[in-house]
């Protein structure tokens, strides 16, 4: 890492503000919980336990706060709706990051709270301030039972949510994380045992919440933190309902490069370019939802996704659709070699084979979404720099198509120029995307509007080298991609690219007619690995000047 | 579906359990209590539970002198040294052995269940133990780390 921990956490304005507010609130709640226990004369008997009980009450209040926060970043639909309004305040796309911060904090305070309670119950037994032994409180009362259960659930959830496990076996993560349901029940029920009381025995009553607040003097925090839980539950029910609305898989196309294109018709599904959806195929698994980027533009009469058969789910899906791995493997092999237009068969690399739906009955599918992505904001800046790396190029299919549709309608917003970068190791394996690029490129009336830059980072073999050497010179189309744009080899140097762009904008060459005193907004939209993201973000930050503002947005997938 | 590598999962759970074991046995040094003292014990007010005479050996080892706490703590530190791992341990062959971990986790599970603070550590050790046992039965192996692989930090 180029920067150390201190620089990252404290020398960055936004991160510093987050740290101060987030951890400040935690310490505030801890202090408040501690103080209100220590000074409560009604709880004098408990206060005989001194530090341990103050600590446990303080940490308990902090945990309640965390329990209220943990579900908020998971309210995907609500975030999608409020996102445009709150984008200036905090990065709404970093919701998973926030979820993780709350989880880390929760693990720490759970440690504090549990440790304190172990001391509490030890001393309750020793001094007999209540006539019971420690293990009775631990294993026969609501607070103890739910607490131990929540700890166990946390271990399982945290362990399976680790990056490593999630990538090996998404299902293990997905199913285990649904233990959250029981965790939240445990959280809301944690205080129902009436441990914090000023009476000898718990004061249970027959009406909800089944204990009397006259003698049970907890913080009643569940009254506040249950709302995100209810909202999340409602959202899941709504997602289920929405997913069940009429959906039809209308067509399956197999591209020679090995990607399957699923065209889905769902009239109730409204989305904008660059968003993604969850897909479920009940015949393969009736519980799993898999995220895919939408590759069609909102103007298209269908919703399409492109799937490469790389994982269990996608291979099973390929088999089911009659486009099994063997069929596709052969096609991929051919495409990987960078086959030319074959004159005899008349097959273009961009062509596709439609799966004959008379032989195979198409399975029923369900889709859920759409969910947001920063690429919705393309039309708000004058210059859009779209950077896709590897498979991360998929959201730009939708965006480029959408730009193309809007170009035809003459409705481009403030967008004046588009720079499209595609960094990938083996371009030929994304044949379907090339055919799309070909269409978009061919449709350009203004040669300056869209510029396509393709960077091939793979080591090229001898065949390909000859191919390039022989075919490239003087040819109208690039031999590899069949685009008019030349393919470049090696990794792009972002600092230089952005530096040149800034210079061109400042001297007024880049956008004809732009006034130099106006600030030009250049939005960068990136989808790909985070190491590359950091390099590009550094370049945008470095080159932002009084006249040119470079923004950076990263899509998570 | 999916290809869960059990020893990777076991690694995370064993690490958590061992941290818990070290932390709980540290508190066990100050708040000494035999977990099973309620068996045949009598409750006295004040003074708490008076263990049965049959448990005298555990009272000696846990309450009078915190021997078991210290043993549990050392075991936890050893497991952490293997799991985290300490660079010196990483070069040894035992670092890649599941059997060593299984044996250590059995002992950790046994010692922590004896002390009042250690029940969760014991339970989680048993879960980690299950993961490693399954890894061993499925014939998973831990690959020897390759040298000079680079950190992959640069774009």
TrEMBL record, chain A:
Pfam families the UniProt entry points to: FAD_binding_8 (PF08022), Ferric_reduct (PF01794), NAD_binding_6 (PF08030)
Topology class, membrane: Multi-pass membrane protein
Record-level Gene Ontology MF annotations: superoxide-generating NAD(P)H oxidase activity
Domain of life, source organism: Eukaryota
Keyword Membrane appears in the UniProt entry: yes
Compartments where located: Membrane
Residue intervals of the FAD-binding FR-type domain: 236-377
Gene3D superfamilies (alphabetical): Nucleotide-binding domain of ferredoxin-NADP reductase (FNR) module, Translation factors
Residue intervals passing through the bilayer: 16-34, 54-75, 139-160, 172-191
GO (cellular component) term, any one: NADPH oxidase complex
Keywords from the UniProt entry: Electron transport, Ion transport, Membrane, Oxidoreductase, Transmembrane, Transmembrane helix, Transport
Main location per the UniProt record: membrane
Gene Ontology BP terms: defense response; monoatomic ion transport; superoxide anion generation
Transmembrane as UniProt keyword: yes
Name of the protein described by the UniProt record: FAD-binding FR-type domain-containing protein
UniProtKB/TrEMBL annotation, chain B:
Keyword Membrane appears in the UniProt entry: yes
InterPro entries for the chain: DUF7727
Identification of the protein by name: DUF7727 domain-containing protein
Parts of the chain that traverse the membrane: 12-31, 52-82, 94-116
Keywords assigned by UniProt, alphabetized: Membrane, Transmembrane, Transmembrane helix
Organism domain of life: Eukaryota
Domain DUF7727: 1-140
């Amino acid at each position: 890492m180029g920067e150390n921990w201190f620089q990252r956490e404290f020398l960055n304005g936004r991160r510093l503000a987050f740290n101060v507010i987030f951890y400040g609130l935690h310490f505030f709640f801890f202090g408040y919980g501690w103080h209100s226990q220590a000074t409560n004369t009604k709880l004098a008997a408990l206060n005989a336990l001194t530090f341990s009980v103050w600590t446990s009450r303080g940490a308990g209040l902090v945990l309640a706060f965390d329990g209220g926060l943990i579900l908020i970043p998971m309210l995907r639909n609500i975030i999608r709706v409020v996102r445009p309004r709150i984008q200036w305040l905090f990065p709404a796309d970093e919701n998973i990051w926030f979820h993780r911060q709350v989880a880390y904090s929760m693990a720490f305070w759970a440690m504090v709270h549990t440790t304190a309670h172990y001391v509490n119950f030890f001393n309750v037994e020793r001094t007999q301030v209540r006539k019971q032994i420690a293990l009775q409180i631990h294993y026969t009362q609501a607070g103890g039972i739910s607490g131990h259960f929540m700890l166990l659930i946390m271990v399982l959830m945290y362990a399976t949510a680790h990056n490593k496990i999630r990538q090996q076996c998404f299902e293990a993560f997905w199913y285990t994380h649904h233990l959250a349901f029981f965790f939240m029940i445990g959280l809301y029920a944690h205080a129902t045992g009436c441990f914090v009381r000023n009476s000898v025995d718990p004061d249970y009553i027959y009406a909800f919440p089944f204990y009397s607040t006259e003698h049970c003097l907890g913080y009643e925090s569940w009254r506040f933190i249950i709302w995100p839980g209810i909202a999340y539950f409602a959202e899941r029910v709504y997602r289920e309902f929405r997913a069940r609305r009429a959906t039809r898989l209308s067509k399956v196309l197999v591209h020679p490069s090995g990607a399957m294109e699923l065209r889905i018709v769902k009239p109730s599904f409204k989305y904008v370019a660059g968003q993604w959806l969850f897909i479920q195929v009940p015949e393969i698994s009736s519980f799993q939802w898999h995220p895919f980027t939408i590759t069609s533009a909102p103007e298209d009469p269908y919703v399409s996704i492109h799937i490469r058969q790389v994982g269990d789910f996608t291979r099973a899906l390929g088999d089911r659709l009659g486009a099994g791995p063997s069929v596709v493997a052969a096609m991929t092999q051919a495409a990987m070699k960078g086959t030319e237009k074959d004159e005899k068969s008349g097959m273009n690399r961009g062509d596709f084979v439609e799966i004959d739906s008379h032989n195979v009955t198409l399975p029923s599918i369900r889709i859920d979404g759409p969910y947001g992505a920063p690429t919705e904001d393309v039309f708000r800046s004058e210059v859009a720099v779209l950077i896709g790396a590897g498979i991360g190029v998929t959201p730009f299919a939708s965006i480029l198509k959408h730009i193309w549709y809007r170009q035809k309608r003459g409705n481009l917003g403030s967008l004046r120029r588009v720079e499209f970068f595609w960094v990938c190791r083996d371009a030929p394996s994304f044949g379907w995307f090339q055919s799309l690029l070909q269409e978009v490129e061919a449709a350009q009336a203004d040669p300056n509007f869209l510029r396509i830059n393709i960077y091939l980072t793979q080591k090229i073999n001898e065949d390909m080298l000859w191919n390039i050497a022989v075919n490239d010179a003087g040819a109208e189309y690039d031999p590899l991609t069949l685009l008019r744009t030349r393919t470049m080899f090696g990794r792009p140097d972002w600092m230089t690219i952005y530096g040149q762009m800034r210079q061109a904008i400042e001297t007024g060459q880049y956008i004809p007619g732009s006034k130099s005193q106006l600030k030009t907004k250049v939005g960068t939209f990136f989808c790909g690995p985070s190491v590359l993201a950091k390099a590009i973000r550094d370049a945008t930050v470095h080159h932002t000047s009084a006249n040119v503002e470079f923004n950076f947005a990263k899509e998570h997938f | 579906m999916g290809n869960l590598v059990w020893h990777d999962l076991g690694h995370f759970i064993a690490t958590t359990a061992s941290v818990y074991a070290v932390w709980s046995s540290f508190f066990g040094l100050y708040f000494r209590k035999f977990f099973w003292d309620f068996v045949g014990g009598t409750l006295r007010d004040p003074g708490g539970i008076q263990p049965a005479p049959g448990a005298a050996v555990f009272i000696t080892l846990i309450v009078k002198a915190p021997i078991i706490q210290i043993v549990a703590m050392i075991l936890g530190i050893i497991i952490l040294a293997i799991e985290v791992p300490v660079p010196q341990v990483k070069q040894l062959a035992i670092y890649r052995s599941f059997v060593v971990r299984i044996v250590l986790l059995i002992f950790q599970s046994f010692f922590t269940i004896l002390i009042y603070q250690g029940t969760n550590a014991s339970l989680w050790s048993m879960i980690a133990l299950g993961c490693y046992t399954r890894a061993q039965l499925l014939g998973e192996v831990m690959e020897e780390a390759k040298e000079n692989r680079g950190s992959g930090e640069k774009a």
